[in-house]
Amino acid sequence: MGVNENIFLIGFMGSGKSTIGRMLAKALNSLFLDTDDWIEEHTQKSIPEIFSSQGEEYFRLLEKKALEHLATGTGQIIATGGGMPCFYDNIKTMNQYGITIYLRMEPKDLLQRLRNETAKRPLLHNKSEEELLGWMDLKIKERNLYYEQATFIIDAHQEKEWILEELLRKLHPYV
User: Fold this and answer.
1) 136 in a domain, yes or no?
2) What is the percent of the chain with per-residue pLDDT over 90, rounded to a whole number?
3) How far is the CA of 6 from the CAs of 75, 88, 103, in angstroms?
4) Which end of the chain is more exposed for a tag (fewer CB within 10 A), N or C?
5) Is pTM beyond 0.90 here?
6) Is residue 1 part of a domain?
7) Does residue 70 contact residue 76 with C-beta atoms inside 8 Å?
8) Are 45 and 55 in contact (CB under 8 A)?
9) Strand, helix or coil at 19?
């Protein structure tokens, strides 16, 4: 079994896009790609290095370039950066070239996953847990305008296996 269309996993950082993407790719015998990995490979820099040396705006341009490159393939499972759908009409590009799945999570659930990853995630640097919670709540509200344009929305606070089964059920007509 494989997929004919690309499947783009979108959602806030920590929502499980890469983890679920790998599981979905294995279940569908498809290629898994991560846009952050693509950017790091093509720039030979880590995401934190890009943010600190060239800033967020430059990173968002790199995301657009990665999307334009990867979207031309077919049958791929693509995990995107959390902000990718929100810039440069990227959500429209994703919807044009495939199926989009929003892995939705509440800020309090995301905080549990992200509290020990602030060093690896540039947008989380130097924030207390209270500040993180407030910042995530604000960002998710801003981004929902884009995230909710997804083909499917999945509540991602569930167990990974449940999320995978739900995705396979929703994708059944497409695979």
Assistant:
1) yes
2) 79
3) 5, 19, 16
4) N
5) yes
6) no
7) yes
8) no
9) helix
Q: Rounded distance, CA 30 to CA 147, Å?
A: 24
CA distance 16 to 160: 8
Q: Return the structure tokens found at 115.
A: 């509290």
User: 70 in a domain, yes or no?
Assistant: yes
Residues of the chain short of pLDDT 70, as ranges, are 1-3, 118-119, 122-123
Residues 4, 8, 9, 10, Cα dihedral to 10°: -160
pLDDT, position 1: 42
pLDDT given at position 132: 85
Q: Which domain holds residue 17?
A: 6-168
The answer to whether residue 99 is domain-embedded is: yes
Number of domains present in the structure of the chain: 1
SS3 106: coil
Q: 123 near 48, Cβ under 8 Å?
A: no
Which of 100, 80, 73 minimizes the C-alpha distance to 39?
Answer: 80
- Kindly give, in sequence order, each residue whose CB lies less than 8 Å from that of residue 34, ignoring residues fewer than 6 positions away: 17, 18, 21, 78, 79
H/E run at residue 101: strand 98-104
Whole-number Å distance between alpha carbons of 16 and 170? 18
